[in-house]
Amino acid sequence: MATEDLQRLVEVAQLVTAAQEAMSDEIVTRLAGAMSEGLNLLDRLTRNEGLMRLLQVLDRQETQYLLIALSEAIHAASHEIPATAPATGGLACMMRVIRDPGTQEGIRLLSVVGKHLSHSLREQHRRGG
Amino acid sequence: MRILVVGGGTGGTILANNLARRLSAEIRARKVRLTMLSASDKHMYQPGLLYVAFGQMTPDQLYRDQASLLEASIDFHVDPVEQFLLDQKQVRTQSGKIHEYDILVIATGSRIVPEEVPGLVEGAETFYTEASAVKMFKRLREFEGGKVAVVVGVPHKCPIAPVEVMFSLHDYFKSRGIRDKVTMKYHYPIGRIHTIENVAKWAKPEFDRMGIEYETLFNVKEVDVKNKIVKSEEDTETHYDLLIAIPPHRGMEVIEKNNLGQGGWIPTDRYKLTMNGHDNVYVLGDTTNLPVSKTGSAAHFEAEVVSENIASIIKIGTPVRDYDGKVYCFIEAGHDRATYAMFNYLNPPNLKPPSKPMHWFKMAYNQMYWTSVRGLL
């Protein structure tokens, strides 16, 4: 074995010794506690059928469009709301909002999501999960 | 198929979680129902009591909510069983409710019975309950020197506890700078210093090195609290200033009251882990009468075998595994060093020299236990 190789081995051994010296029961306990909880969390997440299905759906291109649209909508709304005069209330105000084509599109989107959500829930309960 | 688990300790919890994982599809399809009945809504990490007795852990660190450790598909009730009606495949609980089953698992554990030795409750410190472990630590804090005697009742939970407590006492007094003012004497009921021969062979030189005296064939008969003398069935006696006892154990009272087994230990098939004469009743952990150590690890390995067998009976109609008597015990050897003993029905343990990494492994396991009972490790 070459001298440099031996030197490297000595350095690795020194590193291990230094790590051993630096460790304490408290550190080991905290690390193990965090690892243990992390493992439990990972286990629960990976066995959660709903979450796994959500991840599958999120992988689809059209869902990513939806997510991009959602993030852009949140961004736009956060700018738009402070610049809009507060609602005055009453039927006239409501009619003004409802007449807006954008609002109508929004309500339609939510009702389509609601329709599919309701259908899927009913089906899952009927099949027993 | 109705599976009923009685007892929410280490064995019962691991078994129920393993079954819930193995039979998740069947439970979802409502073909299998998994129910657990326990006496408590809390789960205690019992090996931690030794750490409490030496001020290295506080009692709150030993507990988790039992429900938080169980798979959501397990129907969990805090309602201890009072009556086992095995012929009718039913149990009756404290609340008066009847639970029917097709497969029953009994994992009720064991209890200490120090009252069976006159004077032991009043005269000795112990660490097998939360209150006694805290009391023992306070007593150790006040102790300034003198004769410490350790006595061992039989049978008892955790076979390694007697030697571990000696090493821990040695370390504790040393860290307080009073080891030279303390004499320590260990008393063991059989003709060597530990029931497992290789543990005895390993521990003897360790005791000699630490200056620990020992007396074998010492079965505790009574404690003369007034004169601070502990007497043996063999007509020997030891004077003490501080007496520490590993108390004798019995199975749970409900097992005795229902005549399921003498001393509360249920006669169990050593390979199948079924109750003798009842193929649909399984027994786990301390509750069995098997010649294996009463430890969490035995309960753990037994639970894995039983859960695999119950699942395979449901899926393919036959069990697939036998329990080989496997036990794994950490041994804290003092000076932040530890080793371990692993053995089964056929192979005795082969102890390795204690090391710091093994001590850390034990420290880590104290936390990983919670992952283990969830059926993950």
Helix content of chain B: 25-40%
Radius of gyration of chain A: 28 Å
Structural class of chain B: alpha/beta
In the predicted model, the low-confidence regions of chain A spanning at least 5 consecutive residues are: none
Which strand order spans the largest sheet of chain B, edge to edge or round the barrel? 5-2-1-9-20-19
Helical run tally of chain B:
11
Q: Please state the overall shape of chain A, judged from the principal axes of the Cα atoms.
A: elongated
Structure summary:
The complex is a heterodimer of chains A (129) and B (377). Chain A is mainly α.
Q: Can you give a write-up of this model?
A:
The complex is a heterodimer of chains A (129) and B (377). With 129 residues, chain A is mainly α. Chain A contains 6 helices and no strands. The longest helix of chain A has 27 residues, at 101-127. Chain B is an alpha/beta fold and 377 residues long. In chain B, 31% of the residues lie in helices and 27% in strands. Chain B has 11 helices and 22 strands. A 6-stranded mixed sheet of chain B has the order 5-2-1-9-20-19, with helices on one face. A 4-stranded parallel sheet of chain B has the order 13-12-11-17. In chain B, strands 6-7-8 form a 3-stranded antiparallel sheet, with no helix packed on it. In chain B, helix 1 runs parallel beside helix 10 (296-316). The model of chain B has no long low-confidence stretch (mean pLDDT 96). Classes of the chains: A mainly alpha (129), B alpha/beta (377). At the A-B interface, helix 2 of A face helix 11 of B.
